[in-house]
Design a protein that fits this description.
mainly alpha, 5-stranded mixed β-sheet, 17 helices, binds 2-acetamido-2-deoxy-beta-D-glucopyranose
């Protein structure tokens, strides 16, 4: 019941206290630019600061989304936002009890954070969690005002690098300023439903030949005994079971990072290093998206596209795919995605045959 903002600040304070003794000494010696990002970020108070630049301020003076969230009037703090608050403390607690060593953020870690300077938003995009629609909405919000319907933007255009700016593109001081004063949000989804969705989209659709060539051929070569020559060459008939064995094979991540479509949210968005203000869920996409747009004060300007329920993967479907997977690999996969289950409060699916 007590002040939302205080809890947030307190936690940041504790983290900075926790870090300082060890890091303090190493700091001078290491002297790496990226260190500044984390230190300044943690030492700062979370109190939103007014932007001073006039370049891209909105016409009317309005509160920043962060101010609305932490000092907001009760009207703005709807029931939806109360559940967002619960998720955030769950995430904070999970981070405190499951990450032993804190690492320093580097610009490379910020590649998935999309910046909206006009409204003070930072969105970490996670593929297979409505990220096309969120990118479309952000293109509308950061655009020149001519486009107001997100769905009028072709999906492929939403993914063109350069149409939206990422936080990694900014100098360190600018990064720190944005991490401190912008509303940071991401959307997550049940990890295995997201995985099944990625598998279906990338390996069972005939048009995704780039994925078949790049990943499919390797998966067939390594995980199918007696593969036919056409399968080895095309890589277009990977089964879910083979895909899972590819993911849990230690060689896979030794060779290169996972593709972003199946990389864990924990690794894409660094939720224990970046303190997200809002954790939206795919399972409640419509109301969570509305809550974010309300906080940004733009719910009158842009509507988040309503999702087509028919294309969603549900628990039953994920269960059918997992039936083909040996319990030994189910367990390994669960371990691989453990942090995503844990930090975002998803329980072990009932359909698994692991104890
Ligand atoms: C802000 O606007 C004022 C008046 O319009 C101008 O004098 C000033 O240079 C601007 N500052 C910046 C940082 O753009
Ligand atoms: C975590 O999930 C459980 C079960 O779905 C739910 O009852 C609980 O409210 C959730 N906790 C938070 C903080 O969202």
């Amino acid at each position: 019941m007590s002040d939302f903002g205080t809890g947030f600040r307190l936690w940041q304070f504790e983290v900075s206290k926790m870090r300082m003794p060890k890091v303090g000494r190493v700091f001078l010696a290491t002297c790496v630019g990226s260190l500044f990002i984390l230190l300044l970020y943690f030492q700062s108070t979370s109190k939103p600061v007014e932007s001073t630049g006039n370049s891209s301020r909105p016409e009317k003076a309005r509160r920043s989304p962060l101010q609305t969230l932490y000092n907001g009037d009760q009207v703005a703090l709807s029931a939806a936002q109360a559940s967002l608050r619960g998720r955030r403390s769950h995430l904070e607690e999970g981070c405190l009890s499951h990450t032993r060593k804190r690492r320093v953020l580097s610009p490379e870690d910020l590649r998935h954070l999309i910046v909206d300077d006009r409204h003070g938003l930072l969105y970490c995009y996670v593929p297979k969690v409505a990220c096309t629609n969120w990118k479309r909405v952000l293109m509308v919000l950061t655009g020149d005002g001519r486009q107001s319907d997100p769905l009028a933007i072709p999906a492929n255009e939403a993914h063109v690098a350069g149409n939206l700016r990422t936080l990694a593109e900014f100098p360190v001081a600018e990064i720190n300023h944005r991490l401190r004063s912008y509303l940071k949000f991401l959307f997550v989804r049940d990890p295995f439903e997201r995985l099944v969705s990625a598998y279906r989209n990338k390996f069972t659709r005939s048009y995704n030949t780039a994925f078949h060539k790049r990943y499919g051929t390797k998966i067939v070569r390594r995980h199918r005994a007696g593969a036919r020559p056409e399968a080895l060459e095309r890589g277009d008939d990977v089964t879910f079971d083979e895909f899972v064995r590819y993911l849990v094979d230690p060689r896979t991540q030794r060779e290169e990072p996972f593709n972003e479509h199946w990389e864990r949210v924990h690794s894409l968005c660094h939720p224990c290093l970046i303190h997200y203000d809002v954790v939206g869920k795919y399972e409640t996409l419509d109301s969570d998206s509305r809550a974010v747009l309300q906080l940004a004060g733009v719910d009158g300007e842009v509507r988040f596209p309503t999702s087509a329920k028919s294309t969603r993967t549900n628990g039953d479907m994920a269960g059918r795919f997992f039936k083909s997977v040996n319990p030994f690999y189910q367990k390994k996969l669960l371990n691989l995605y453990r942090m995503d289950f844990l930090l975002f409060n998803y329980s072990t699916p009932d359909y698994l045959s692991v104890s």
